């Protein structure tokens, strides 16, 4: 999704320089419907008499407005579309599910430039509601028109929480994943779309997601940012070390590492089933971990990454058949057991979009939480602790990270915010 830390965008989201909030437009907004004939979409405005039984949508805050504004910049869409791992996996997933899409109604939650909606139209969808609250929806509509798809793809310029679609849908598609999977909190909008419109037995792409973490060593990175200050053109600048550590490692870093940086098998922080996950569950995610280092190395921190899977609804776990999709409980083999596989079993051979260090890089890279000081660990040394990821009270799109870790008889706490 985004490239804030590494791509020169500042202050979270995708700003290329300062952003302007669109003031005086809080709460419900009116929406533009660029729909063609036959759609069941309705322009919704603040003056509509809302007699529907559904609870009022959550307010659109200034933070949300800044977030949507960040997606009006072409750069972020270019970056996402040029990420071939991402875009080609989505296209392959759509084509693989053509029998669920052809002749059916689809909603694309956060359509951006409209690319996934157009893939769905190419797969034979009867109608696609392409919804985006960002002004990029204006361009999406132009792209749809230029491809002669206006009869099939109806662009709705508004929040998924606010737009009206007066029919049930067969398929929900969305590219909602943020750094560390949950940053940006866009999954909440997929839940809202699912609960508002998805037919029973309908398809959600992707269908499930898993967030992983693992301890890492990264001597080059530490040396380049920290050790550097020990000898600068022959001058001892070690006095800079505390500031350098704080500036480099206070907040999570989005960087690409490789499998060689990872000290042992990962731990599953959270598994998300898009058919059943609730917004309440996403407010705070907590897990305890226990790793056994497979090598002697300086431990510099933890890496987080995720994968998403595109499965048929029929093979997702149900109450009666809880093991139908995931053959093993994700952390069933404790992370201290060297026989553990690196990833979840994938018996259905479902298409997977992975952002793991050992897989081809994506624009999500990996999210690293570095320690201020490394811990020297021996082979087989235990690294254990707990992590809690919670939505910031101030802005639910920001993530508070509370990390407790212990190894070799010493324990530490690190608090950080991904903003
Ligand atoms: C990661 S981009 C994906 C764009 C496009 N689907 C693609 O794959 O290239 C997410 C898009 O979702 C939109 N979005 C996020 N939350 C939304 C919401 N609640 N309602 C409408 N649009 C939303 C953003 O404005 C952004 O354009």
Automatic annotation (TrEMBL):
Residues 208-312, 349-407 form the Protein arginine N-methyltransferase domain. Residues 1-61, 317-359 are annotated as: Disordered. GO terms for molecular function: histone methyltransferase activity; protein-arginine N-methyltransferase activity. One of its GO terms (biological process) is methylation. Residues 17-31 have a biased composition (Basic residues). Keywords: Methyltransferase, S-adenosyl-L-methionine, Transferase. Residues 318-329 have a biased composition (Polar residues). PANTHER family: PROTEIN ARGININE N-METHYLTRANSFERASE (PTHR11006), PROTEIN ARGININE N-METHYLTRANSFERASE 6 (PTHR11006:SF73). Arginine methyltransferase that can both catalyze the formation of omega-N monomethylarginine (MMA) and asymmetrical dimethylarginine (aDMA). This is Protein arginine N-methyltransferase. It comes from Actinidia chinensis var. chinensis.
